[in-house]
Amino acid sequence: MPTSESPRSRALALAVLCAGMLMIILDGSIVTVALPAVQADLGFSPSGLTWTVNAYVIAFGGLLLLAGRLGDLVGRRRMFVAGLAVFTLASVLCGVAANPATLIAARFLQGAGGAMASAVSLGMIVTLFTEPRERGRAIGAYAFTGASGASIGQVLGGVLTDVLSWHWIFFVNLPIGLAAGLLALRALPADRGLGLRAGADALGALLGTAGTMIGVYAIVQASGHGWTSGRTLGLAAASLALLAGFVARQATARSPLLPLRVLRSRNVWGANAIQMLMLAAMFSFQVIVALYMQNVLGYGATGTGFAMLPAAVAIAAFSLGLSARAVARFGERAVLLAGLGLLLAGRLLLARVPVDGAYPLDLLPVMLLTGGFGLAMPALTALGMSGARPEDAGAASGLFTTTQQIGAAVGVAALSTLAATRTGRLLGEGRPSPEALTGGYRLAFEIGAGLLAAAIVLAVVVLRRPAPPAAGPAAPRADRAGRDQRVSAG
Question: Which residue, of 159, 302, 314, 479, is most buried by count of CB atoms within 10 Å of its CB?
Answer without folding.
Answer: 314
